[in-house]
């Protein structure tokens, strides 16, 4: 056991597991990412669905439908599509229930913005 001699000596910060870190709605992240990548805002649902797909291909996506954050697995993401600007994930087979309350970790937002910005920059050349 480690004893601390003064108030200046504090234990190291405990790192939160990924699912407990601050989260942001995927739909909001799609809008923010698009705005930062292009310098424009959009309400076009199709565009935001595509941005949500790009985000999901570069970071983990979670759902909080059941209370705790549960990660959507990469194979699940291949079996469906994002809808409502990234607010919903729908399976193509229609046998499985749509998944809502989609989120990503706030700390991943900057990285996905950079990736999407590079994609938009390369397309505008």
What is the succession of H and E elements?
Answer: EHHEEHEEEH
- How many whole angstroms does the radius of gyration measure? 18 Å
How many distinct beta strands? 6
Terminus-to-terminus distance: 59 Å
- Count of runs of 4 or more consecutive helical residues: 4
Strand order of the largest sheet: 1-6-2-3
How large a portion of the residues is in β-strands, by DSSP E? 15-25%
Largest sheet: 4 strands, antiparallel
Proportion in helices: 25-40%
What is the residue-mean pLDDT, rounded to a whole number?
86
Shape: globular
Low-confidence spans: pLDDT under 50, at least 5 residues? 1-7
Structural class: alpha+beta
What are the SSEs and their pairings?
Elements: E1 23-25, H1 26-38, H2 45-56, E2 62-63, E3 70-71, H3 74-77, E4 80-83, E5 88-91, E6 102-105, H4 106-123
Antiparallel strand pairs: 1-6, 2-3, 2-6, 4-5
Helix pairs in contact: 1-2, 1-4
Features:
125 residues, alpha+beta, four-stranded antiparallel β-sheet, two-stranded antiparallel ribbon, 4 helices, 38% helix
Can you walk me through this structure?
The chain is an alpha+beta fold and 125 residues long. 38% of the residues lie in helices and 15% in strands. It contains 4 helices and 6 strands. The strands form 2 sheets. The chain has a 4-stranded antiparallel β-sheet with strand order 1-6-2-3. A two-stranded antiparallel sheet has the order 4-5. The radius of gyration is 18 Å and the shape is globular. It starts with 22 loop residues before the first strand and ends with a helix. Residues 1-7 have low confidence and may be disordered.
